[in-house]
Amino acid sequence: MRKKQLIYLILIILSFLVLASLGLMVVESISLQESLYRAIYISLTHHDNFHMDSWPARGIVIGLVLASLVLLAYLLKLFGEYIIGLGDGLKRRKIKAKLISMKDHYIVCGLGRVGSQVARELASEGQHFVAIDKDENRVKEAVAMGYTAFVGDSTKERDLHKAKIEKAKGIVASLGDDSNNLFLTLTARQLNPDLFIVSRANREENVQRIARAGADKVSMPNQIGGFHMATLLMRPHVIDILDSLSTNKSSDLQVREILVPKSSTVSGHRLENILKHAEGITTLALNTASGTSHVHPTGREVVYPGDSLIVMGTKSQLQTLNKLV
Question: How many C-beta atoms lie closer than 10 Å to residue 137's C-beta?
Answer without folding.
Answer: 10
